[in-house]
Amino acid sequence: MKFQKVFWGLALVLCAVFIILDATDVIAPFTSIFGEVSVFFVILGIMLLALAVERIANGKFNEIFVPLALIFMLFEKNIAFAMGLEKTNIINNWIVLLCAVLLTVGVGMLMPK
């Protein structure tokens, strides 16, 4: 349990540093086939993916939907660019969060404790 606190504490501190560096344009965004991707978004996406994998490894399948929804919201513009869509807002963020919460509650009710 102590390792998790240290890991997530350091991850949050690094996240704050990258937010400052990204906001001041010290770190340039990546350019890829998905368009420009912020370094901060990549790091935050990796952290959210690690959280989802950790939840799956611990058998808490109902807790993976919110991190996955947040990953989708972070990279929605890049997903739209990769799909060739003109509008960058594929779906309203509130709908994505509502679906994530409903999936979390629903799967939590279906899965045994």
What does this structure look like?
The protein is mainly α and 113 residues long. 68% of the residues lie in helices and 5% in strands. The chain has five helices and two strands. The longest helix has 22 residues, at 2-23. It starts with a helix and ends with a helix. The mean pLDDT is 80.
Ordered list of secondary-structure elements with their pairings:
Blueprint: H1 2-23, E1 30-32, E2 35-37, H2 39-57, H3 65-74, H4 76-83, H5 93-110
Antiparallel strand pairs: 1-2
Summarize the structure.
The chain has 113 residues and is mainly alpha-helical.
From the structure above, extract its key features.
2 strands, mainly alpha, 113 residues
Taken in chain order, the helices and strands follow as HEEHHHH
Rounded to the nearest angstrom, the radius of gyration is 16 Å
Strand order of the largest sheet: 1-2
Question: In total, how many beta strands?
Answer: 2
Oligomeric state = single chain
| Proportion in β-strands | 5-15%
The largest sheet is:
2 strands, antiparallel
Percent helix among the residues?
Answer: 55-70%
User: How large is the count of helical segments?
Assistant: 5
What's the rounded overall pLDDT mean?
A: 80
Structural class computed from helices and strand pairing: mainly alpha
Taking pLDDT < 50 over at least 5 consecutive residues as the criterion, the unreliable ranges are none
> How far is the N terminus from the C terminus?
21 Å
Shape: flat
